[in-house]
């Protein structure tokens, strides 16, 4: 399918006029008309903008339109940032068309709490309406009461280019965790103790990005520090995070 027809299809699927799409792309209505009629083509940056805005992968948009690819190549040769754009185009094409899925999947971006679609039930069921996201959590023992480890969980969610474009599932609430059950078992001086989660918090981005935790998933708190230092760090993290659930 030619790119112009695909752009027109995307616009109509989202009930947009040419003026509406022109506003999103920061161009004139006539420019949109020229794209759809095959008289001209959007530049690479605009193609990426359309891809991200409407969740349409670049390989689907570009596939089968050799004329468009040739036209973009000619236009970019006269651009100020020709070298940068050509390198970016090669990287995108190699990743999406030639199967660089591993690299793309490995790159995750933090999802702010307000954008996660998370809801938590009274019995500890955590749900989200973002089915192509990834849920991550860290669990720490805060105290031992009557042979049971009381634990606190710090959680966050991420999304990736790969999951947004290729792993989309029907938009529906799905359970991502349930804290009404015992989370596991730990040994304390040779004795097997139960682990029970008592509180669940959603971590702010700075705790992850400043320490380089996105994509690496190391421990947030090093066990090498003293118990007092661990307690102080946990208390500070609790103060900075969003409380999602607390055991009654």
- Poorly predicted ranges (pLDDT <50, ≥5 residues)? none
Class by alpha and beta content: alpha+beta
- Provide the succession of SSEs: HHHHHHHHEEEEEHEEEHHE
Number of separate strands: 9
- DSSP strand content: 25-35%
Distance between the termini: 58 Å
CA radius of gyration: 24 Å
Helix content: 40-55%
Figure out the total of helices.
11
Largest sheet: 6 strands, mixed
- Overall morphology: elongated
Mean pLDDT: 79
Number of domains: 2
What attributes characterize this protein structure?
single chain; alpha+beta; 434 Repressor (Amino-terminal Domain); 2 domains; six-stranded mixed sheet; three-stranded antiparallel sheet; elongated
Give a nutshell description of this structure.
By secondary structure, this protein is α+β, with helices and mostly antiparallel strands.
